Amino acid sequence: MDEAIRETEVENLYVLPAGVVPPNPSELLGSEKMKQVYAELYEIFDQIIFDTPPIQLVVDAQLLCSLVDGSILLVRSNHSSKENSKKALQKLQTANAHVIGSIFNNNKMKMDGYYYAD
């Protein structure tokens, strides 16, 4: 673990790169070993963020959300449809994820005084 964790230029921010994708990532993410890795990381760090592929593509996010304290759904403006966003949230809920919020990004909004206008 010590060899794999990388320090960044940002103070107190570290990265653990995923490395080479194994032939069976879902089996690996759902394994007891992954639970041990998470427990070890949690002993070292106060907060851990897992960046996963889109929940609609693979089961990685669903597997990881069972390990973590909270999940955040990222919705990309002009890319993610309302229907797909709802389905993604349903998949998180089915996996018993504790959804703590969402991020709506890539939205081009203009500031008009104190208010945003589309």
Automatic annotation (TrEMBL):
Q: Name one GO molecular function term.
A: protein tyrosine kinase activity
Q: Which Gene3D superfamilies match?
A: P-loop containing nucleotide triphosphate hydrolases
Keyword annotations from UniProtKB, A to Z = ATP-binding, Kinase, Nucleotide-binding, Transferase, Tyrosine-protein kinase
Any single GO CC term annotated in Swiss-Prot or TrEMBL for this entry: plasma membrane
InterPro entries named in the record:
Bact_polysacc_biosynth/exp, P-loop_NTPase, Wzc-like_C
What name does this protein carry? Protein-tyrosine kinase
Q: Which organism is it from?
A: Listeria riparia FSL S10-1204
The opening ranks of the lineage are:
Bacteria, Bacillati, Bacillota, Bacilli, Bacillales
